[in-house]
Specification:
about 270 residues, mainly alpha, Arc Repressor Mutant, subunit A, three-stranded antiparallel beta sheet, 6 strands, elongated, disordered C terminus, WH-like_DNA-bd_sf, DNA binding, OmpR/PhoB-type_DNA-bd, BTAD, DNA-binding
């Protein structure tokens, strides 16, 4: 089984889609897919489908949705007579207290993303910016849009997708940091300007844009970005920029050598 959740939901058994069109079965399949290989407890599935308004018929209705999913899997299994004998209950298994999709986590693009993101983060921590950039670029390339963009989202999936998007943003910031260390300041400017426009209160993205601008020979534009962020923070939140960003602002004003970036760029190009 191949599972994709980093964008539209796509689940294939033997190359045949088993994603239902109805909303609630789609939610169940999405949640089971995110927990690939692990048991999703029945109360968790009910909370996702109905929140606090669980009907009396919930247990029977949930079993009906599971049956509908297994029927789709049965059709996909019939289309592959040469594959090892498997039944729908082998694929969508009943476990003590819940259900699970009986696949390895690596069958899901979300698990692949997390593995690559961790490898990239570890490489960045170890000072290997080139490996970090490569791993994180591969991880981010798995995303085809917002997580589960075509699935109705209840309480449980809402928290899951929020965590997924935050993890994606962290990986993106780390990939940009790796590229800054490699000296790709000028080529990052367009991407960073777009990201800052989309996330106007995000201090780390602003700091990365300021750094890229300084290393590209435009410190005055970096100061302008700081002023604009400070005005937005004061107006919308009533706070000042963080001490870290204020230290960066002072470094730009003083022309700190670490913001020059010339030596880093030469090393990156000659490596």
């Amino acid at each position: 089984m191949d599972i994709e959740v980093l964008g539209e939901l796509a689940v294939y058994e033997n190359g045949v889609s088993v994603v239902p069109s109805a909303g609630k079965p789609r939610q169940i399949l999405a949640l089971l897919s995110l927990w690939a290989g692990r048991v999703v407890p029945v109360p968790t599935l009910m909370e996702e489908l109905w929140g606090d308004a669980v009907p009396r018929s919930a247990a029977t209705t949930l079993q009906t949705y599971i049956l509908q999913l297994r029927r789709r899997m049965a059709a996909a299994l019939r289309d592959a007579p040469d594959s090892p004998a498997r039944t729908p209950k082998d694929v969508l298994a009943t476990a003590f207290g819940g259900y699970r999709v009986a696949v390895t986590p690596e069958s899901c693009d979300w698990s692949q993303f997390r593995r690559l993101a961790v490898q990239g983060r570890d490489a960045l921590t170890a000072g290997d910016a080139r490996s970090a950039s490569a791993h994180l670029t591969r991880a981010l390339a798995l995303w085809r849009g917002p997580a589960l963009v075509d699935v109705p989202v209840g309480r449980v999936l809402g928290l899951e997708t929020l965590y997924m998007e935050e993890t994606r943003m962290q990986a993106l910031e780390e990939r940009i940091e790796a590229d800054l260390r490699l000296g790709y300041h000028a080529s990052l400017l367009g991407e960073l300007r777009t990201l800052v426009a989309r996330h106007p209160l995000h201090e780390n993205l602003c700091a990365q844009l300021m750094t890229a601008l300084c290393r590209s020979g435009s410190p005055w534009r970096a100061l302008q970005e700081f002023r604009q962020l400070r005005e937005r923070l004061r107006r919308e939140l009533g706070v000042e920029p963080s001490p870290r960003l204020q230290r960066l602002h002072q470094a730009v004003l003083s022309g700190a050598p670490e913001l020059d970036g010339g030596e880093t760029f030469v090393q990156a190009r000659s490596a």
